[in-house]
Specification:
With 575 residues, this protein is of the alpha+beta class. It has 15 helices and 24 strands. A 12-stranded mixed beta sheet has the order 6-5-9-7-8-14-15-16-10-11-12-13. It has a 6-stranded mixed beta sheet with strand order 23-22-21-20-19-24. Pfam families: BPS, PH, RA_2, SH2. Belongs to the GRB7/10/14 family.
Length: 575
C-alpha cells in the first residue's frame, strides 16, 4: 500500500484458453468480481484438465534420467487450435488475496493429481527411506539426516551429541542421563539459554531440538539441568493460580475445585483468562509503565483505560502462537527493571534484537509463575498434560518388573555373625535384617579422629564425619548465598527443594538452603561436641546427628523444625 492506494494485481488467463469451453469470466465493463463463481469455474476446469494429464503421464515410459518419453503425435489426431468462439477473454483486476487463493487451490489440485515420481538417485537415500518420493513424504520442518548439538552443564562443561532430526527434548534428556550416569527421576530438562539477552526457557518435552536450534542465534546454547517445577502445577494448581488473578474464579466467588480449573485451561473450547497489573517496558526506551494486562487464548492484551475489558480499550501486546515466554535472569542490571521478577515474550523470528522483546515485570514470584504457567497452558493445552503423564505411565509399567531376580550366587549367600570367637550363620531373617542395619550405621563411627601427628583432634576436618557429606549431590561446598538462591530458582521453586553449603560466617558450620511456598530460607547447622565426639544439629542441640548425611535423611522423613520435609536435592551434574 503506497500513497493510500490499494495495491492490485491483474490476472491474465489467455494462457488457459484450451482448458475448458465452460470457463466464463466477468465482462471488462463490470466493476465487481464474483469470486465464488470464479473459483468454482476454475476448479471444474482443473478437474477436467489434470485427469487427462495424469493418464498420459502414467502411460508414458520414463528414461533413465527421470524425463518422460515424448511420443510423436498420431497422424489421425492432429493438435487443433482453439476456436475463436471458445477463446477466453481478459478478466477484471482482482485483489492479491484473491489471486493467492486461486494459486493455492491450483497447486493443491496439481499435486493431488500428479503421480509419485521415482527418485533418480536411490543410493543417496537413507536405509529407512523409500526410493520413491511422493508429495508430503518428508515433513517440511523435519529434514532427514543427523545433526550436531552441543549441550552444556551448570559448571560450563559440554558434550557434543549427534541426534536425528525428529529427536525431542525428552529423548535428548534421556540420552544425556544415560551417558552421564545420572538418576532418572523425570526432572531433567533442556534449557534454551541466551547469554547476551539474559534469557532462559525450559523446552517442552515434545519440542524438536533441531527446530529450536535453527531459530537460535549464534550465541545461544542448550543447558542440561533439573527443573522440579515443570509440571508441579498439575499436582498443586491452586498454588500456581491465585484466585484474584483468574477471572473465572472471581465470577464464581472462588469456589472452583482444582480439577475444574485445569480442565478449563486444557479444554480448547474453554476461555480462561488471567488478569492483573504488570510493569511493561516501552519499546526502545528504558521507562516502565504499570498497566492492567489480560492473557487469553487469542493473545496477551493490555487495557489503555484502567481495568476496562471492553474490546475498544484493549490492545494486542503479543501473540501466543509464534512466540515463547522466557525468564529474564539479568533484568535489574540490563533493563533497569523495577522488580526482580521479570519475564519476557520473544517472537520466534527474533534472534538477538532487544527491540522486538516484550519485557514485563510482576510484583512477586507467585504472580510471575502464574503468568508464565498460564502462557504455556494456553499455547500447548493438552500436549502438556500428555507430557506429564508419559513418565508416570512408564513408571507404572516398569513397576511390574521392579523386583530384581536373584542370581544363583546371591541365593548361595547367607548372613554371618562374627562378633564372637567363632562365626555363626544367622538363620532368623529378622535377626539378619537387624544386623545389616546395625552394621550400616556403625561404619560411620569406627574412624578415630586423628590429626596429621596421630593425636586425637575432635574438630579436625580430616575426620570422616566432617568430610563424608562432600560426596553427596546435594552438597555444593563454598558457594555464596546469592549463588544458592540462583540454583534454587533455576531448578524450580517447589516445596522441599534444598541444598547444603559451607557457612560464610562460621568456618565450622554449614547452611541448609531450602524453598517453601516459593520463598527461599536458610538454616544454620552448628557442630557440637559431646563425650569427645562431634555432632551436628539444626535446633541448638535438641536433635543431634553424627554427620550431615544422617541429618538430611532424618529431615527427609520428618519435618522437625523445618517448614516442610526435604524432598528434592538441588543437583549439578558435569557432562
Amino acid at each position: 500500500m503506497f500513497g493510500g492506494d490499494t495495491l492490485t494485481s491483474h490476472l491474465t488467463v489467455d494462457s488457459l484458453a484450451p482448458l475448458s469451453p465452460n470457463v466464463s469470466f466477468c465482462h471488462p465493463t463490470d466493476d465487481d468480481v464474483d469470486l465464488e463463481a470464479l473459483v468454482n469455474d476454475m476448479n471444474s476446469s482443473f478437474e477436467s484438465l489434470y485427469p487427462q494429464c495424469s493418464t498420459q503421464t502414467e502411460a508414458s515410459p520414463l528414461l533413465h534420467n527421470g524425463q518422460p518419453h515424448r511420443a510423436p503425435p498420431q497422424s489421425g489426431s492432429p493438435l487443433q487450435p482453439a476456436s475463436p468462439g471458445h477463446r477466453v477473454r481478459r478478466s477484471q483486476p482482482m485483489h492479491i488475496l484473491a489471486v493467492r487463493r486461486l494459486q493455492e487451490e491450483e497447486q493443491q489440485l496439481r499435486t493431488s493429481s500428479l503421480p509419485a515420481i521415482p527418485n533418480p538417485f536411490p543410493e543417496l537415500c537413507s536405509p529407512t527411506s523409500s526410493p520413491v518420493h511422493s508429495h508430503g513424504s518428508l515433513p517440511q520442518c523435519q529434514p532427514s539426516g543427523k545433526y550436531i548439538v552441543k549441550v552444556f552443564s551448570e559448571d560450563g562443561t559440554g558434550k557434543v551429541v549427534e541426534i536425528p532430526a525428529d529427536m525431542t527434548a525428552r529423548d535428548l534428556c534421556q540420552l544425556l542421563v544415560y551417558k552421564s550416569h545420572c538418576v532418572d527421576d523425570n526432572s531433567w530438562t533442556l534449557v534454551e539459554h541466551h547469554p547476551l539477552l539474559g534469557l532462559d526457557r525450559c523446552l517442552e518435552d515434545h519440542e524438536l531440538v533441531v527446530q529450536v536450534q535453527a531459530l537460535m542465534s549464534s550465541e545461544g546454547k542448550f543447558l542440561f539441568r533439573k527443573n522440579y517445577a515443570k509440571y508441579e502445577f498439575f499436582r498443586n494448581p491452586l498454588n500456581f493460580f491465585p484466585e484474584q488473578m483468574v477471572a473465572w474464579c472471581q465470577e464464581t466467588n472462588g469456589s472452583i475445585p482444582p480439577s475444574q480449573l485445569l480442565q478449563k485451561f486444557l479444554n480448547s473450547s474453554g476461555c480462561p483468562e488471567i488478569q492483573g497489573f504488570l510493569y511493561l517496558k516501552d519499546v526502545g526506551r528504558k521507562s516502565w509503565k504499570k498497566l492492567y494486562v489480560f492473557l487469553r487464548r487469542s493473545g496477551l492484551y493490555f487495557s489503555i483505560k484502567g481495568m476496562s475489558k471492553e474490546p475498544r480499550h484493549l490492545q494486542l501486546l503479543a501473540d501466543l502462537e509464534d512466540s515463547n515466554i522466557f525468564t529474564v535472569i539479568t533484568g535489574k542490571k540490563l533493563h533497569n527493571a523495577p522488580t526482580d521478577f521479570e519475564f519476557c515474550i520473544k517472537p520466534n523470528k527474533v534472534r538477538s534484537d532487544f527491540k522486538e522483546l516484550r519485557m514485563m515485570c510482576a510484583e512477586d514470584e507467585q504472580s510471575r509463575t502464574c503468568w508464565m504457567t498460564a502462557f504455556r497452558l494456553l499455547k500447548y493445552g493438552i500436549l502438556l498434560y500428555q507430557n506429564y503423564k508419559i513418565p508416570q505411565q512408564r513408571k507404572t509399567l516398569l513397576s511390574h518388573f521392579s523386583t530384581p531376580m536373584r542370581s544363583v550366587s546371591e541365593n548361595s549367600l547367607v548372613a554371618m555373625d562374627f562378633s564372637g570367637r567363632i562365626g555363626r550363620v544367622i538363620d532368623n531373617p529378622v535377626e539378619a535384617q537387624s544386623a545389616a542395619l546395625e552394621e550400616g550405621h556403625a561404619w560411620r563411627k569406627r574412624s578415630q579422629r586423628m590429626n596429621v601427628l596421630g593425636s586425637p583432634g575432635p574438630l579436625h576436618p580430616s575426620s570422616l564425619s566432617t568430610v563424608i557429606h562432600r560426596t553427596q549431590l546435594w552438597f555444593h561446598g563454598r558457594i555464596t548465598r546469592e549463588e544458592s538462591h540462583k540454583m534454587i530458582i533455576q531448578q524450580g521453586q517447589v516445596d522441599g527443594l534444598f541444598l547444603l553449603r559451607d557457612s560464610q560466617s562460621n568456618p565450622k558450620a554449614f547452611v541448609l538452603t531450602m524453598c517453601h511456598h516459593q520463598k527461599i530460607k536458610h538454616f544454620q547447622i552448628l557442630p557440637c561436641e559431646e563425650d569427645g565426639q562431634i555432632f551436628f544439629s539444626l535446633d541448638d542441640g535438641s536433635t543431634k546427628f553424627s554427620d550431615l548425611i544422617q541429618l538430611v535423611e532424618f529431615y527427609q522423613l520428618n519435618r522437625g523444625v523445618l517448614p516442610c520435609k526435604l524432598k528434592h536435592p538441588c543437583t549439578v551434574v558435569a557432562l
